[in-house]
Design a protein that fits this description.
The complex is a heterodimer of chains A (115) and B (111).
Chain A: E1 4-7, E2 10-13, E3 19-25, E4 31-37, E5 44-51, E6 54-57, E7 64-66, E8 76-78, E9 87-94, E10 105-106, E11 110-114
Parallel strand pairs in A: 2-11
Antiparallel strand pairs in A: 1-3, 3-8, 4-5, 4-9, 5-6, 7-8, 9-10, 9-11
Chain B: E1 4-5, E2 10-14, E3 19-25, E4 30-38, E5 44-51, E6 56-59, E7 62-67, E8 72-77, E9 86-94, E10 99-101, E11 105-110
Parallel strand pairs in B: 2-11
Antiparallel strand pairs in B: 1-3, 3-8, 4-5, 4-9, 6-7, 7-8, 9-10, 9-11
Chain lengths: 115, 111
């Protein structure tokens, strides 16, 4: 079945540590996205990638980093510079970026808790 | 910047009732409007996508409409069931290629 796989589902981090969240898709989509979801707030865009080896900052990129070395993979690193990293992180993909985006599809999410 | 609002934040209805969820957006220059369902602790599941040239989309008991001029979209759920209990989110894609999400309506269908 085609879809988006995020791992791990739950992750605990000590302050000062970097952690990496995995996102893999087998939908053959060009565009991939990372969102952050906090209680009572809408989803906020962290980073997006239109194509392999290219990515752009979203609205809340500070303290995060990404890479896009393969079409299928778009890992997100939450660095120690992120002041309030405890949140639910969602990876998404779409056929393309721009006017032909089509539907946005999401993974099951990763919940990060800072101890 | 596009702002998306969903009112009410929470809604409880008895099983079998028809209901309407509302989504409003401030910038009518949108390209797509997409409705999602989110179960607790889970990702978002796409329900319906309405392109700007369309007025509505239907899937089973769900019907979504789009009125760009008034900045509104509605999701109609017919004959609600307890399994419909979830949070429903809408997202407006602007011509600048960003998706803007509402905070969702939490629906509880009481058996």
């Amino acid at each position: 079945d085609g879809g988006i796989t995020q791992s791990p589902k739950y992750l605990f981090r000590k302050e000062g540590q970097n952690v990496t969240l995995s996102c893999e898709q087998n939908l053959n989509h060009d565009a991939m996205y990372w969102y952050r979801q906090d209680p009572g707030q809408g989803l906020r865009l962290i980073y997006y990638s239109q194509i392999v080896n290219d990515f752009q900052k979203g609205d809340i990129a500070e303290g995060y980093s990404v890479s896009r070395e393969k079409k299928e993979s778009f890992p997100l690193t939450v660095t120690s510079a992120q002041k309030n990293p405890t949140a639910f992180y969602l990876c998404a993909s779409s056929i393309a970026f721009g006017l032909a985006t089509g539907e946005l599809f999401f993974g099951e999410g990763s919940r990060l808790t800072v101890l | 910047k596009q702002e998306v609002t969903q009112i009410p934040a929470a809604l409880s209805v008895p099983e079998g009732e028809n209901l309407v969820l509302n989504c409003s957006f401030t910038d009518s220059a949108i390209y797509n409007l997409q409705w999602f369902r989110q179960d607790p602790g889970k990702g978002l599941t796409s329900l319906l996508l309405i392109q700007s040239s369309q007025r509505e989309q239907t899937s089973g008991r769900l019907n979504a409409s789009l009125d760009k001029s008034s900045g509104r979209s509605t999701l109609y759920i017919a004959a609600s069931q307890p399994g419909d209990s979830a949070t429903y989110l809408c997202a407006a894609q602007t011509t600048g290629n960003q998706f803007y999400f509402g905070t969702g309506t939490s629906l509880t269908v009481i058996p």
